[in-house]
Design goal:
heterodimer, A: 112 residues, mainly beta, seven-stranded mixed β-sheet, four-stranded antiparallel β-sheet, 11 strands, B: 113 residues, six-stranded mixed β-sheet
């Protein structure tokens, strides 16, 4: 089984809809991250969390919110989706003391 | 702020050719440097890393050396295979409290038989 899982893997939605992307991990890591990937731009950090009570904005947090329900779960929400949020979204985890991050398989989101 | 610049793709090579993908960085302090690989339909996987100047990271025949004097971390492989076809991302982490990681734009490599 994969250490970092994301659901759904693909989602098509319409402008104005609320959508939630979910991430679960079995690595026992405290730190979790949400990134979006756009062609030619690499990955950009949306939000990160160092533990259940710690949530921080990343480089591009506008239009997104997150919830850390448990150490193993970190959800990303788009309150009112817009077409320029069409992208590939990745969840990642890491543990304090190391700077290597471990990535999930990604969620491809299309906003029409 | 911290940033990573890597050579634009796509790169197309024949099997057994030599590969170089250039990566340079801008950072305050002494970041850790990484190469991640993304195979089609998958998430990013760590390929190799280096944490201090002159360190060489290596894995699966790929190598990269942390060059502080040229702020570079170029990826090389002596003989590529079709299975190496993927997107390669250079990244840095500032190792500060927020584990802030910055990625390059990615370079798509296609290896033809």
């Amino acid at each position: 089984d994969a250490d970092v899982t994301q659901t759904p893997r693909n989602r098509i939605t319409k402008t104005g809809k609320r959508i939630m992307l979910e991430c679960s991990q079995t690595k026992g890591h405290d730190r979790m991250y949400w990134y979006r990937q756009d062609p030619g731009l690499g990955l950009r950090l949306i939000y990160y969390s160092f533990d259940v009570k710690d949530i921080n904005k990343g480089e591009i947090s506008d239009g997104y919110s997150v919830s850390r329900q448990a150490q193993a779960k970190f959800s990303l929400s788009l309150e009112s989706a817009i077409p320029n949020q069409t992208a590939l979204y990745f969840c990642a985890t890491s543990t304090p003391g190391t700077d290597t991050q471990y990535f999930g398989p990604g969620t491809r989101l299309t906003v029409l | 702020g911290n940033s990573v610049t890597q050579m634009e793709g796509p790169v197309t090579l024949s099997e057994e050719a030599f590969l170089t993908i250039n990566c340079t960085y801008t950072a305050t302090g002494y970041p850790s440097l990484f190469w991640y690989v993304q195979y089609p339909g998958e998430g990013l996987q760590l390929l190799l890393k280096a944490t201090k100047a002159d360190d060489k990271g290596s894995n699966k025949g790929f190598e990269a050396t942390y060059r502080k004097e040229t702020t570079s971390f170029h990826l090389e492989k002596g003989s590529v295979q079709v299975s190496d076809s993927a997107v390669y991302f250079c990244a840095l982490s500032d190792r500060g409290g927020n584990n802030d990681m910055r990625f390059g734009a990615g370079t798509r490599l296609t290896v033809k038989p």
